[in-house]
Queue: 2 jobs
Job 1
Amino acid sequence: MKARGLVWRDSLLLASEIYLGDGSIKGVRPLGGRLEFGETWRDALVREFDEGLGVAVEVIGKPMVFENIFTHQGVIGHEITFVSDVIFPDVAYQQDGPIEYVEDKGETCRAFWFDVEELDCGHLELYPNGLKAQLPERTQTSQISGSLDPHSRHRKNSIQSKSLKFRFWHS
């Protein structure tokens, strides 16, 4: 089981790249990770953000739950994922470029702010499967504070990369 957090800044979602064995990018997913034995999904989500990014997040609202049976690099997988909005500190990770962090296996990963409308359109897929369909309603009801405010003080800059527009933030 996994827990993933939806971190929003001006309608952009913080998501991490998922790589194939050849190094190409298969898609993206919200940040988070595996639940440890005896751990609730909420506790796991807070722990994963703390361990991976050194950021204290607050989990808000009820989770969406996804069950996916999938094939990744030729191996069939089965996972249940809890996905919930989290409040990310406004002062965290405002620099240009990717947010780099290390996963529990020691693998360096990169996360970017993505325009969700540009995902699942043939370039990059948003995982878990079915998440994008749930987001329009979710973003309408989640604009409740701080970093979720659609009128935040941040301004967008765009760059073109790998046929997909990434947006980064400056204060």
Job 2
Amino acid sequence: MNTSRRESSVASSTTLRAASVTQSGVSSRAATIAFEDVDMMDIDPPSPDTLLPSNKKFYIAVDYGTTYSAVSFVSLEPGEDPEKVKPDRIKNITNYPKDPRVYGHIAREVPTELCYLNPSEQHNGPNENRGWPQSWGNGAEQHGDSGDGEDSDDAPPYEDNEFEDTAPSDDLCWGYMVQDTLGRPNRTSLAELKRGCLRRTKLLLDDSEHTKTVRKDLLIAIQHVKGMKRIKNNEDVIRDFLTKLFRHVKHELETNHGYTDQCAVEFILCVPPIWSSKASRTMHNAMATALRKSGFMRRSSTSIPNLFIVSEPEAAATFILTTSPSNHRIRVRNQPTTCHHY
């Protein structure tokens, strides 16, 4: 399967998995991670003002991929039973900035890429917010340098004390904007632009031996970005990408799908089964900060209310068992095999 299509499929299946279990007595699964070595601590009881019965409820699933990321969602009318949601109700977030629309196809996923530009370049690069609400913010986020290398296992969870509502500034390109920017370097040389470009940032959370070489190269680029005073911690690059992503998601839902701040939302995060508890916590913290900065969460929130975490193989298996024409052949004690493409 094409990698980008795989990401949107996993995001869709994650949406289906969460929506189908929320009211079936399995919602307590949100208190325990989908794999053994991770303790789940991310679920908080929703505040009363987020569960108004007169508004829609949205299930928003995120697949933060190594090369591509995707977001799928489904909206339920007040009083609608999540167990009766059909797969064809699930929709993908689209209309990503600078989507090349190859052969006329609208992308259902976006490259997991970032490019930090020097401030002098921001007026020459693409502006993703052109024509969008000014309240999305153009203020630059400046951070100090916190040292070299990867964060240690003893490091405290990431804490963001800057509860400002601005997103990463216009001198940060993301997704399809990165290749567009590299195609016209303007006053900055192409080699200099590439030094601020980051790809495969998801591998920062994978400490396995077979990703060591990739992580080493990635850390070199991150050190360059730290020298630009744009980030403080290595994982800030994940936060910055997710902030851009969620701002786009919120805009799309508000513009095309009837989302308002009064709608209840349940977030679903799809994670690899090999991730450690530290990796899952780091991802949760980055996602929580991004949701605050994008306006999905209140500024005072430190964890994500109504978060459902599911492993990627389980999400894919759920989708296949739900949508496959041959699923009636599955019997008790059958042992299906799921291949995980990382």
